[in-house]
Amino acid sequence: MSFTPHGKHLIAGEWLDTDLKFRSEPAHGAAHEFSAGTVDLVNRACEAAEEAFWSYGYSSRAHRAALLDAIAEEIEARAEAITLIGTQETGLPEARLDGERGRTTGQLRLFAAHVRDGNYLDRRHDAALPHREPLERPELRLIQCPIGPVAVFGASNFPLAFSTAGGDTAAALAAGCPVVVKGHSAHPGTSEIVAEAIHAALQKTGTPGGVFSLIQGGRRDVGTALVQHPFIKAVGFTGSLVGGRALFDLCAQRPEPIPFFGELGSVNPMFLLPNAVVARSAEIARGWAGSLTMGAGQFCTNPGIAVLVSGDGADVFAAEAVRALEPTGKQMMLTDGIAAAFRQGRDRMAATAGVEHLLATTCDGRAATPSLFRTSGAEWLANHALGEEVFGPLGLIVGVADEVEMLAVARSLQGQLTCTLHLDAADTDLGRRLMPILERKAGRVLANGFPTGVEVADSMVHGGPYPASTNFGATSVGTLSIRRFLRPVCFQNLPKELHGGDIVDCVGTPALRRRRQKAHGLPPNPPPSLMSVEATSQIERRGGN
Known about the structure:
Layout: E1 9-11, E2 14-16, E3 21-23, E4 33-35, H1 39-56, H2 61-77, H3 79-90, H4 94-117, E5 124-126, E6 140-146, E7 150-153, H5 167-175, E8 179-182, H6 188-205, E9 212-215, H7 220-228, E10 234-238, H8 241-253, E11 260-263, E12 270-272, H9 274-292, E13 305-309, H10 312-325, E14 331-332, H11 336-350, E15 356-359, E16 363-364, E17 367-368, E18 371-376, H12 377-382, E19 394-400, H13 403-412, E20 416-422, H14 428-441, E21 442-447, E22 486-492, H15 501-504, H16 510-519, H17 528-541
Parallel strand pairs: 7-8, 7-10, 8-9, 10-11, 12-13, 12-20, 13-19, 18-19, 20-21
Antiparallel strand pairs: 1-2, 3-4, 5-6, 6-22, 14-17, 15-18, 16-17
Helix pairs in contact: 1-7, 2-4, 2-5, 2-6, 3-4, 3-6, 4-5, 9-10, 13-14
């Protein structure tokens, strides 16, 4: 199935052109001309999204689930064309595009099921107590409600799973929020055909066109206008620390500040504990090499740092890592800009005092081979620049003097998406000492594995303290990510005639009350008067809420 992009923007159900153009820069195959985004298109898309919100935001969960399922079906119907244009634009192999497409459609269907289930609404109901003394209690109901239109910035490294119909878009649509996507210039053709799939799904389900818009390319002022538009109520972003921080600051400086859910940068350190190193350093090194070079090292969960105690075991690990990495052929970087940044980071690392270059790399044009460096724990602690992400197939081994220095290296870390422990049973004591540090530093802590696989599931967290993300309480993967685009609303003494379906379904929360009473040392079933005065005072004195 062939596909030739027409190069237009999708704005509220219409394919629109502009006079300003740009050309794609594919890894192979023909380049195509695309219409570049403008501030006027941003205004039109955001106005359409706001208008659509008044119907879509209050549509049934069944309707939203049907839309998500329909998008998945329409993407699958274009599978061959998506893989063709995606491999041409990114240089990624067909198997990677096929797998990422499956992840994308699976994610959409997971959210469809999650919406149908309804548990994400966190429905709560406290019945009225009209005879409570000294004051009666009103009836209270709570549900999570959609916040309004959401802006999504497509990622360079995942043309499907973190782009036009990726996790941010799926979560926002599931919540009931219209989406305006700013497509990434690295893969505009892929974005266009996925937008066609979404457009077809909107038509199939009778959903307003303003629920989804795609704006391609454009100057920096287009992104600025999007995050500053008054109708946009949140932003989802996956990209660089510099670009993400600039957008984050713009969101904070708005007259009405909005949340910016940015996933920015992480070196995803691994801590190899002594007994695990003695038992299986070669095995761990080979696994690390595979994870380090997956997708040419262009995963946000790429484990760029390996920390272990210096000695014979560390030398074996380093030698085995070199042997595992050496045969790796040239891999295609996603864009010329990413390749140039990789060369810069590699050269900066090579020129750093106290850093040994174990494996040289080549990076001609967009084709790169892996690079490996080694330094000491003391050098790491003295030079914070060693902890900066180099996006690409580059690894750094940090040899620490002892367990005390390993703990110091862990404490020195900035926020991370992941931290990994490789340990055996005899390493449990050191592992226990590391755990409080690592869980404070990362959104996901792994044992005896590698972080490059991010499961799309209820329990997944893909986020972490800054600079891994700009909101440590959120995740961009898994069903919990829907919470980013919801806010709790309490309905007090609301007449039944005004109840929507989701409000009616609110249920009592006796289990929640019992947990709260137990936590504050209260009797299990106090009389209403006690709960209203004495119990409330106890909770306030003990710092409850």
